[in-house]
Design brief:
With 277 residues, this protein is α/β, with parallel strands linked by helices. It folds into two domains: 68 residues; 192 residues, TIM Barrel (Alpha-Beta Barrel). Helices cover 49% and strands 14% of the residues. It has nine helices and ten strands. Helix 6 crosses helix 7. Bound molecules: zinc ion. Zinc ion binds next to strand 2.
Protein backbone atom coordinates (compact mmCIF):
# COMPACT_ATOMS: atom_id res chain seq x y z
CA UNK A 1 0.00 0.00 0.00
CA UNK A 2 2.79 2.34 0.94
CA UNK A 3 4.45 1.49 -2.37
CA UNK A 4 1.25 2.35 -4.27
CA UNK A 5 1.16 5.71 -2.49
CA UNK A 6 4.81 6.37 -3.31
CA UNK A 7 4.08 5.58 -6.97
CA UNK A 8 0.93 7.66 -7.10
CA UNK A 9 2.49 10.84 -5.69
CA UNK A 10 4.78 11.52 -8.68
CA UNK A 11 1.90 10.69 -11.04
CA UNK A 12 -0.35 13.23 -9.31
CA UNK A 13 2.41 15.84 -9.27
CA UNK A 14 3.20 15.33 -12.97
CA UNK A 15 -0.49 15.38 -13.93
CA UNK A 16 -1.25 18.55 -12.04
CA UNK A 17 1.84 20.14 -13.52
CA UNK A 18 0.65 19.15 -17.00
CA UNK A 19 -2.85 20.47 -16.28
CA UNK A 20 -1.59 23.84 -15.10
CA UNK A 21 0.68 24.07 -18.16
CA UNK A 22 -2.35 23.28 -20.36
CA UNK A 23 -4.42 25.96 -18.74
CA UNK A 24 -1.60 28.42 -19.22
CA UNK A 25 -1.31 27.39 -22.82
CA UNK A 26 -5.07 27.69 -23.42
CA UNK A 27 -5.04 31.17 -21.87
CA UNK A 28 -2.32 32.16 -24.29
CA UNK A 29 -4.31 30.72 -27.13
CA UNK A 30 -7.42 32.55 -26.00
CA UNK A 31 -5.55 35.82 -25.70
CA UNK A 32 -4.88 35.90 -29.45
CA UNK A 33 -8.47 36.55 -30.50
CA UNK A 34 -8.73 39.12 -27.68
CA UNK A 35 -5.77 41.05 -29.05
CA UNK A 36 -7.21 40.76 -32.51
CA UNK A 37 -10.48 42.18 -31.22
CA UNK A 38 -8.71 45.15 -29.60
CA UNK A 39 -6.76 45.82 -32.77
CA UNK A 40 -9.91 45.76 -34.82
CA UNK A 41 -11.60 48.14 -32.43
CA UNK A 42 -8.66 50.49 -32.54
CA UNK A 43 -8.61 50.23 -36.31
CA UNK A 44 -12.30 50.88 -36.56
CA UNK A 45 -12.08 53.74 -34.10
CA UNK A 46 -9.39 55.37 -36.26
CA UNK A 47 -11.60 55.20 -39.30
CA UNK A 48 -14.79 56.13 -37.52
CA UNK A 49 -13.26 59.37 -36.09
CA UNK A 50 -13.71 61.09 -39.45
CA UNK A 51 -17.13 60.59 -40.97
CA UNK A 52 -17.95 61.71 -44.50
CA UNK A 53 -19.50 64.88 -43.13
CA UNK A 54 -16.49 65.58 -40.93
CA UNK A 55 -14.18 64.85 -43.86
CA UNK A 56 -15.80 67.60 -45.89
CA UNK A 57 -15.57 70.02 -42.95
CA UNK A 58 -11.89 69.11 -42.38
CA UNK A 59 -11.18 69.53 -46.08
CA UNK A 60 -12.88 72.89 -46.31
CA UNK A 61 -11.36 74.35 -43.13
CA UNK A 62 -7.76 74.79 -44.32
CA UNK A 63 -9.05 76.44 -47.49
CA UNK A 64 -10.76 79.13 -45.42
CA UNK A 65 -7.68 79.77 -43.29
CA UNK A 66 -5.37 79.91 -46.38
CA UNK A 67 -7.66 82.45 -48.06
CA UNK A 68 -7.56 84.59 -44.92
CA UNK A 69 -3.74 84.55 -44.86
CA UNK A 70 -3.31 85.35 -48.57
CA UNK A 71 -2.44 88.91 -49.59
CA UNK A 72 -5.27 90.81 -51.28
CA UNK A 73 -5.30 90.04 -55.00
CA UNK A 74 -4.43 93.14 -57.01
CA UNK A 75 -5.64 92.77 -60.59
CA UNK A 76 -2.65 92.57 -62.90
CA UNK A 77 -2.36 95.36 -65.47
CA UNK A 78 -2.11 93.88 -68.96
CA UNK A 79 0.83 95.59 -70.71
CA UNK A 80 0.34 97.63 -73.90
CA UNK A 81 3.40 96.06 -75.49
CA UNK A 82 5.75 98.33 -77.43
CA UNK A 83 7.32 96.14 -80.13
CA UNK A 84 10.83 97.61 -80.12
CA UNK A 85 12.45 94.64 -81.84
CA UNK A 86 10.20 95.15 -84.90
CA UNK A 87 11.48 98.73 -85.45
CA UNK A 88 14.17 99.22 -88.13
CA UNK A 89 16.38 101.04 -85.59
CA UNK A 90 16.76 100.62 -81.85
CA UNK A 91 14.27 103.09 -80.31
CA UNK A 92 15.17 105.68 -77.65
CA UNK A 93 12.34 105.77 -75.11
CA UNK A 94 11.45 108.32 -72.44
CA UNK A 95 7.82 107.18 -72.06
CA UNK A 96 5.44 104.56 -73.38
CA UNK A 97 2.11 105.22 -75.07
CA UNK A 98 -0.58 104.02 -72.64
CA UNK A 99 -3.67 105.18 -70.79
CA UNK A 100 -3.12 102.59 -68.07
CA UNK A 101 -1.97 103.95 -64.67
CA UNK A 102 1.63 102.76 -64.87
CA UNK A 103 5.07 104.28 -64.35
CA UNK A 104 8.61 103.00 -64.97
CA UNK A 105 11.63 103.71 -62.78
CA UNK A 106 15.28 103.30 -63.69
CA UNK A 107 17.90 103.72 -60.94
CA UNK A 108 21.45 104.39 -62.08
CA UNK A 109 25.12 103.78 -61.21
CA UNK A 110 25.07 102.16 -57.72
CA UNK A 111 27.38 104.54 -55.84
CA UNK A 112 25.68 104.35 -52.41
CA UNK A 113 24.53 101.02 -50.92
CA UNK A 114 22.05 102.26 -48.34
CA UNK A 115 20.77 99.41 -46.06
CA UNK A 116 17.45 101.19 -45.49
CA UNK A 117 16.93 101.37 -49.26
CA UNK A 118 17.62 97.64 -49.49
CA UNK A 119 14.81 96.99 -46.98
CA UNK A 120 12.55 99.35 -48.96
CA UNK A 121 13.12 97.37 -52.19
CA UNK A 122 12.65 94.04 -50.39
CA UNK A 123 9.33 95.28 -48.99
CA UNK A 124 7.97 97.03 -52.10
CA UNK A 125 9.24 94.53 -54.70
CA UNK A 126 9.04 97.20 -57.40
CA UNK A 127 10.09 95.92 -60.84
CA UNK A 128 12.47 98.86 -61.34
CA UNK A 129 15.40 98.67 -63.76
CA UNK A 130 18.88 99.02 -62.24
CA UNK A 131 21.24 100.66 -64.76
CA UNK A 132 24.36 99.71 -62.82
CA UNK A 133 27.95 100.43 -63.68
CA UNK A 134 30.68 97.99 -62.66
CA UNK A 135 32.83 100.76 -61.12
CA UNK A 136 30.11 100.96 -58.43
CA UNK A 137 28.68 97.44 -58.16
CA UNK A 138 31.95 95.46 -58.28
CA UNK A 139 32.76 96.15 -54.61
CA UNK A 140 29.40 94.76 -53.40
CA UNK A 141 27.38 92.94 -56.08
CA UNK A 142 25.45 91.12 -53.31
CA UNK A 143 23.64 94.34 -52.39
CA UNK A 144 22.25 94.64 -55.92
CA UNK A 145 21.62 90.90 -56.25
CA UNK A 146 19.21 91.22 -53.32
CA UNK A 147 17.34 94.04 -55.09
CA UNK A 148 17.26 92.02 -58.32
CA UNK A 149 15.88 89.06 -56.36
CA UNK A 150 13.14 91.36 -55.01
CA UNK A 151 11.79 91.89 -58.53
CA UNK A 152 14.10 94.47 -60.12
CA UNK A 153 15.65 94.13 -63.59
CA UNK A 154 19.17 94.80 -64.72
CA UNK A 155 19.99 97.34 -67.45
CA UNK A 156 23.26 98.16 -69.22
CA UNK A 157 24.98 101.47 -68.32
CA UNK A 158 28.28 101.04 -70.27
CA UNK A 159 31.58 99.57 -69.26
CA UNK A 160 33.38 102.68 -67.98
CA UNK A 161 30.66 105.38 -67.80
CA UNK A 162 32.06 107.65 -70.52
CA UNK A 163 30.30 110.42 -72.45
CA UNK A 164 29.35 108.46 -75.59
CA UNK A 165 29.14 111.63 -77.71
CA UNK A 166 32.94 111.78 -77.58
CA UNK A 167 33.37 108.21 -78.84
CA UNK A 168 33.40 106.65 -82.32
CA UNK A 169 30.90 103.96 -83.32
CA UNK A 170 33.45 101.20 -82.60
CA UNK A 171 34.33 102.68 -79.21
CA UNK A 172 30.65 102.98 -78.28
CA UNK A 173 30.07 99.39 -79.37
CA UNK A 174 32.91 98.22 -77.12
CA UNK A 175 31.49 100.20 -74.17
CA UNK A 176 28.08 98.55 -74.54
CA UNK A 177 29.04 95.02 -75.72
CA UNK A 178 31.84 94.57 -73.18
CA UNK A 179 29.47 95.60 -70.39
CA UNK A 180 26.95 92.93 -71.51
CA UNK A 181 29.61 90.31 -70.72
CA UNK A 182 30.36 91.89 -67.33
CA UNK A 183 26.66 91.74 -66.34
CA UNK A 184 26.46 88.13 -67.52
CA UNK A 185 29.52 87.20 -65.45
CA UNK A 186 28.50 89.15 -62.31
CA UNK A 187 24.74 88.55 -62.21
CA UNK A 188 24.02 85.85 -64.80
CA UNK A 189 21.80 88.36 -66.65
CA UNK A 190 22.11 89.76 -70.18
CA UNK A 191 20.32 93.15 -70.11
CA UNK A 192 17.70 94.05 -72.73
CA UNK A 193 17.85 97.79 -72.06
CA UNK A 194 20.62 100.36 -72.16
CA UNK A 195 20.75 103.81 -70.58
CA UNK A 196 23.61 106.02 -71.82
CA UNK A 197 25.58 107.90 -69.12
CA UNK A 198 24.30 111.50 -68.73
CA UNK A 199 21.55 110.61 -71.21
CA UNK A 200 23.97 111.44 -74.05
CA UNK A 201 23.51 109.45 -77.26
CA UNK A 202 23.59 109.75 -81.06
CA UNK A 203 22.75 107.53 -84.04
CA UNK A 204 25.93 105.53 -83.49
CA UNK A 205 24.76 104.74 -79.95
CA UNK A 206 21.48 103.29 -81.25
CA UNK A 207 23.28 101.22 -83.91
CA UNK A 208 25.93 100.02 -81.43
CA UNK A 209 23.23 99.11 -78.90
CA UNK A 210 21.40 97.03 -81.52
CA UNK A 211 24.58 95.17 -82.47
CA UNK A 212 25.10 94.32 -78.76
CA UNK A 213 21.60 92.81 -78.52
CA UNK A 214 19.91 95.75 -76.78
CA UNK A 215 16.14 95.99 -77.42
CA UNK A 216 15.70 99.66 -76.51
CA UNK A 217 17.74 102.65 -75.28
CA UNK A 218 16.12 104.21 -72.24
CA UNK A 219 16.08 107.89 -71.25
CA UNK A 220 13.74 109.64 -68.79
CA UNK A 221 10.80 111.99 -68.73
CA UNK A 222 11.31 113.15 -65.12
CA UNK A 223 13.95 112.61 -62.43
CA UNK A 224 13.96 112.28 -58.67
CA UNK A 225 16.80 113.93 -56.74
CA UNK A 226 17.33 115.76 -53.42
CA UNK A 227 14.04 114.31 -52.14
CA UNK A 228 12.04 115.98 -54.95
CA UNK A 229 10.49 114.99 -58.28
CA UNK A 230 11.78 117.23 -61.07
CA UNK A 231 9.37 117.41 -64.02
CA UNK A 232 10.51 118.27 -67.54
CA UNK A 233 6.97 119.32 -68.41
CA UNK A 234 4.00 120.11 -66.13
CA UNK A 235 3.75 119.44 -62.41
CA UNK A 236 2.95 115.74 -62.06
CA UNK A 237 3.99 112.28 -63.19
CA UNK A 238 1.86 110.84 -65.98
CA UNK A 239 0.96 107.33 -67.14
CA UNK A 240 3.67 105.57 -69.14
CA UNK A 241 6.56 107.87 -68.16
CA UNK A 242 10.06 106.58 -67.47
CA UNK A 243 11.76 108.16 -64.43
CA UNK A 244 15.42 108.60 -63.46
CA UNK A 245 16.86 108.11 -59.96
CA UNK A 246 20.34 107.37 -58.59
CA UNK A 247 21.83 105.39 -55.70
CA UNK A 248 22.84 108.62 -53.96
CA UNK A 249 23.23 109.35 -50.21
CA UNK A 250 19.67 110.74 -50.01
CA UNK A 251 18.09 107.79 -51.89
CA UNK A 252 15.56 107.21 -49.07
CA UNK A 253 14.25 110.77 -49.48
CA UNK A 254 14.06 110.18 -53.23
CA UNK A 255 12.23 106.85 -52.88
CA UNK A 256 9.73 108.40 -50.44
CA UNK A 257 9.16 111.45 -52.70
CA UNK A 258 8.61 109.16 -55.68
CA UNK A 259 6.28 106.88 -53.71
CA UNK A 260 4.21 109.84 -52.46
CA UNK A 261 3.87 111.17 -56.02
CA UNK A 262 2.84 107.85 -57.60
CA UNK A 263 0.33 107.32 -54.77
CA UNK A 264 -1.09 110.79 -55.48
CA UNK A 265 -1.40 110.00 -59.19
CA UNK A 266 -2.52 106.38 -58.47
CA UNK A 267 0.30 104.98 -60.63
CA UNK A 268 1.82 101.51 -60.30
CA UNK A 269 5.50 100.75 -60.95
CA UNK A 270 5.58 98.34 -63.87
CA UNK A 271 8.24 96.17 -65.48
CA UNK A 272 9.87 97.58 -68.64
CA UNK A 273 10.72 94.01 -69.62
CA UNK A 274 7.02 93.22 -69.88
CA UNK A 275 6.08 96.40 -71.76
CA UNK A 276 8.91 96.62 -74.29
CA UNK A 277 9.59 93.50 -76.35
ZN1 LIG B 1 25.33 107.05 -64.69
Amino acid sequence: MKLVIYLLIPVIVISSALLSYNSLFSTKMNSQPELKKINTLLGESKISVISDEEMSITASMPRISITKEEAPIIPKIVPDIFKASEKPNTPFLISLETKKPVIFLGIDDGLVKNPEALEFFKKHKWPVTLFLNQMYFKENPGYFKTILDSGANLGNHTNTHLNLLKLSYEQQKREICDAQNVYKDSFGITPKFFRPPYGNYNDNTLKAAKSCGITAVIGWKARVDEGKVWYQVGDKLNAGEIILMHFRPQIMDDLKAFEAEINRQKLTVEDLNEWVK
